[in-house]
Amino acid sequence: MTKKGEVAGTSPTKVDLKDGETYYWCACGKSAKQPFCDGSHKGTEFMHLKWDQAGDEPRMLCNCKQTNNPPYCDGSHMKLSGDPAVAKGGGDDFD
Ligand code: FES
User: Fold this and answer.
1) Does some domain include residue 88?
2) What is the pTM of this model?
3) Does ligand 1 lie within 6 Å of residue 67's CB atom?
4) How many domains does the chain have?
């Protein structure tokens, strides 16, 4: 099983992904620019997840870092305890 990053938020962020853009999703949970990487993983065992987006599409990107389908939310955040002490960052709630 792959180790997962720390919980940066307890809900995903909706992002309008743009065709042809390169994105870097934060896997460690330490970035201040959630759900994206700001380089804070340096010195950890984690690496960002990079992808080249094909097509414009809105997607829910994971902030809890517990997803089994990174960078996308798969609902794993709903299994978290909900303890606000473990949530250090902010994702947007589903509307
Ligand atoms: S925010 Fe991580 S699975 Fe939903």
Assistant:
1) no
2) 0.83
3) yes
4) 1
Q: Range of 16's domain?
A: 1-81
- Ligand 1 centre to CA of 21 (Å) is 22
Cα–Cα distance measured from residue 54 to residue 12, given in angstroms and rounded to the nearest whole number: 21
Considering the domain boundaries, does residue 12 fall inside one?
yes
Q: What pLDDT, in 10s, does the model give residues 10-58?
A: 999 999 999 999 999 999 999 999 999 999 999 999 999 999 999 999 9
Q: Does any domain span residue 75?
A: yes
Please provide the size of the chain in residues. 95
Q: Which atom of ligand 1 is nearest to the CA of 11?
A: 1
- In testing the pocket of ligand 1, which one of 34, 67, 80 has its CB within 8 Å of the most ligand atoms? 67
Distance 20 CA to ligand 1 centre (A): 24
Domain assignment present for 93 = no
